[in-house]
Each structure stands twice: as structure tokens, then as C-alpha cells.
Specification:
This protein has 423 residues and is α+β, with helices and mostly antiparallel strands. It contains 14 helices and 12 strands.
Length: 423
């Protein structure tokens, strides 16, 4: 009887063990299965599963089969784009070091008042493999370097465009303008429209429950599911008509319904509305000239050299005199700069400039790369205001153009690539 029991137990145990091994083996095979090939480089189910886990946890979505199914197409397209960007960066010799990724993680931890290594560990405890977040952040850093090296240099800003926008700003004084934040999801060939709508609805529900639009939007931007944009104030003629028709009646802090267009889905939070006034930026601009001198090799002589410079420059009465003096004295690098935004100058310049009257030479300014004396050459508030507004316009055009060129760049990479999607 005892032997029959032992034999029966052995058979049952052996069968259960084999069944467990078979399940584990099937799970491993599933994770290693290929979901897409991008120019001969595979993206595995493990890659997709890890990213899905990261997005679901970081966006606080319901972790079930429906959520994963609805997200899969969008996430896979994001992984394909990242792989294409990595391949392009490799061709161009663009690299991202492990230290850069670690620094990025530390920055996020500091922003969220977390201890060192707490972020990855917290995600790991919630089922996200430790390699997933660093890979995602590395992809972000690669994209940023591609933007700096490839895309932003292609942005062209012409004077006509700037002047047209400037005239538009001046002529719209008194009209209503809007400030809103936006989460957007683009339709792709891989993700189904109806799946993306379901995910967008889930996210809108979370935003309503948690009342934290910007934090959720930021996480969506970071994990690559969609895009987050905290817009500057916009007049009606700068707002997409589909967007405007859905937000014009929103109250402050109200969240829009899903805005579905031919290209994607948007969720918008109305931050505020106001009567448009041309901002007074005249104090943010200065018009300067400077003369510069090399630092003495002997640091003990800095005070003596500084006193000599003061004696040479203290009686200057105009920027023309300073320019002429810079041809005879100093390191010959001094010149008339003209109008410039104060925020673009070093802090040690800004502090001295704020103390100066028109045509008054500053005291010698000691910097790491030399000793400087500067002077305000003009203080025409009207011209300063025009310059500041146009610089703001240039920055807005630069941001818009960069976004457009980035989207075209990704489309071109996708068109040129050999991509085999297997799910």
C-alpha cells in the first residue's frame, strides 16, 4: 500500500513539475518571440511587455488585458521609432553614455523628492524590469541629441515671417486669448484608432479622478505614449479650428472631451482666458558695447591690472569712444554688440548693467576668461520693446518648426526603413 502511494505521488509530482516547466518554457519563448524587425534588428515581446508595464504603472492605468491590448500598437510604434533613431544616431556617431542616463534618473528622482535608486526600485517592485526605464531615458536623450545635431540646424526663420507675426500681435490688442495644456496621441499604421480612443478615455478618467493633468501629461510624454504641450498664450488665429471649437466654452481648469481629428486625439485643459495685451518686455533688452582685457598670468597682479583698466576707461563718454579705445587697448576683442536680451548675458554682466546710466562705463568686471568694461549705448524703450517681441516670436517659430521637422524626420526614417511587424 505504501509503495502504491509513493508511486502515485511520484507520478503526480513529476507530471505537475513537467507541466510547470512547460508553462515556464512557453512563457520564456513568448517573451523572446519577435514582434517587429527594424532594418534587421529585432524588437521582442520582452521589449514590448516591459514598456507596457512601465506605461501602465507610471500612468496609473488599469493593468488588465484590455489596457495592454489597446496600448500595444501605440507602444510598438514608439519602440520602432526609438530603434530607428538609435540606428540613425549610430550612423552619425552620436552616443549617449551610461552616466548621462544615470544623471537623468537622478534628476527625475530629485524632482520627485526620491532617494537615489528609489525610482528604478519602486518600478521593479511593481513589476517593471530594471532595464526598462534606463532604455526609455536613453532613447529620449538620443532624440534630444538628434534634435540638436540634425533637426534644429535646419530651422530657418525669415524676417517676413517675424514681421507678419509682430504686426499680427500689435493689431490683436484687446481680443480674447487662451492658455491651455494639451495631451495628444497620433494615429499610426500599427495602433488601431478605436484602441487609441479607449486608452485616451482611460487617461481622461484618471485626470478627472486625480485632478492632476500636468503630472499625468508629463509621464505620458516621458514614457513615449503621447505628447504633452503646455502652450503659451494663443490668439484665435493661432489655434487649430478643431481644437478651438472644443475649448472655446471651457471654463478655467476644465478638461475637454476627447478631440478626435484625422491625425490623432487630444485632451485639453483650459488654464485660463484673458483679454490680449501686448506684454511690456522693454526692460528685458539692453544695447551695449564692451572692451575686454586678458587676465594677468600672475594672479597676484589682478588688482593692479584692474585699477589700470579703471583709469583707462573711467572717462569714456560714448560707445564710439569705447569702440575706438578697444582698437588700441585690451585684447582687441571688444566691440559694439547692439541690442541683446539680458537673459542671454552672463550674470556678472547683468548685475553691472543694472547699475549703469546711459553712456556710463562700468567698473572692471572680472570673469573667468578676462576682464571687461561695458556701457549702455541706447535706451530707447520703444525699440527695445519691438526687439524683445520679435525675439519672442523667433523663439515661438523655432519651437513650432522644430516640432514639425521632428515629425517629418520620423516619417522619413519609417519610410526608408525595412520594417516587419509580426503582431
Amino acid at each position: 500500500m505504501f509503495f502504491k502511494f509513493v508511486i502515485t505521488f511520484y507520478i503526480l509530482f513529476n507530471f505537475t513539475l513537467k507541466e510547470s516547466w512547460a508553462q515556464d518554457s512557453n512563457q520564456i519563448k513568448n517573451l523572446l518571440s519577435i514582434v517587429a524587425i527594424v532594418n534587421d534588428e529585432p524588437i521582442t515581446m520582452m521589449d514590448l511587455d516591459g514598456r507596457l508595464r512601465l506605461i501602465i504603472i507610471s500612468s496609473n492605468l488599469t493593468n488588465n488585458a484590455d489596457t495592454r491590448k489597446n496600448l500595444s500598437g501605440q507602444v510598438l510604434q514608439s519602440l520602432i521609432n526609438e530603434r530607428l533613431q538609435q540606428q540613425e544616431a549610430k550612423k552619425l556617431g552620436i552616443r549617449v553614455s551610461d552616466q548621462e542616463v544615470k544623471n537623468n534618473i537622478k534628476f527625475i528622482e530629485n524632482q520627485n523628492n526620491m532617494q537615489e535608486n528609489q525610482l528604478v526600485e519602486t518600478l521593479f517592485k511593481n513589476g517593471v524590469p530594471k532595464s526598462v526605464l534606463p532604455k526609455r531615458l536613453k532613447a529620449n536623450l538620443i532624440m534630444e541629441k538628434l534634435l540638436n545635431n540634425v533637426i534644429r540646424p535646419k530651422v530657418i526663420i525669415n524676417d517676413n515671417e517675424v514681421n507678419n507675426e509682430y504686426n499680427n500681435i500689435v493689431s490683436n490688442k484687446g481680443k480674447l486669448e487662451y492658455k491651455y495644456s494639451e495631451i495628444s496621441f497620433n494615429f499610426t499604421n500599427i495602433s488601431k484608432k478605436e484602441n487609441l480612443i479607449l486608452i485616451a478615455n482611460q487617461i481622461k478618467k484618471k485626470i478627472t479622478e486625480e485632478n492632476n493633468f500636468d503630472a499625468i501629461a508629463q509621464r505620458i510624454q516621458e514614457n513615449g505614449t503621447g505628447f504633452y504641450k503646455n502652450n503659451d498664450w494663443k490668439l484665435l488665429n493661432k489655434i487649430n479650428q478643431d481644437i478651438y471649437s472644443n475649448i472655446k466654452n471651457l471654463d478655467k481648469n476644465e478638461i475637454s472631451d476627447l478631440i478626435i481629428t484625422n491625425t490623432g486625439i487630444s485632451i485639453i485643459k483650459m488654464n485660463d482666458k484673458r483679454e490680449f495685451k501686448v506684454p511690456d518686455l522693454s526692460d528685458s533688452v539692453t544695447d551695449i558695447s564692451f572692451i575686454s582685457f586678458d587676465l594677468p598670468i600672475n594672479k597676484n597682479k589682478v588688482d593692479i591690472v584692474t585699477e589700470n583698466i579703471f583709469q583707462i576707461t573711467k572717462n569714456l563718454k560714448s560707445c564710439d569712444e569705447m569702440t575706438n579705445l578697444s582698437r588700441e587697448y585690451g585684447n582687441k576683442k571688444g566691440k559694439y554688440i547692439g541690442k541683446v536680451l539680458l537673459k542671454k548675458l552672463p550674470n556678472y554682466f547683468i548685475e553691472e548693467i543694472k547699475k549703469l546710466n546711459l553712456y556710463q562705463p562700468s567698473k572692471p568686471i572680472i570673469a573667468d576668461d578676462g576682464i571687461y568694461v561695458t556701457m549702455i549705448c541706447d535706451n530707447n524703450k520703444k525699440l527695445n520693446q519691438e526687439y524683445a517681441i520679435k525675439e519672442m516670436i523667433k523663439n515661438n517659430i523655432r519651437t513650432r518648426s522644430t516640432k514639425t521637422l521632428r515629425e517629418r524626420y520620423l516619417l522619413d526614417l519609417n519610410r526608408k526603413a525595412l520594417i516587419d511587424v509580426r503582431i
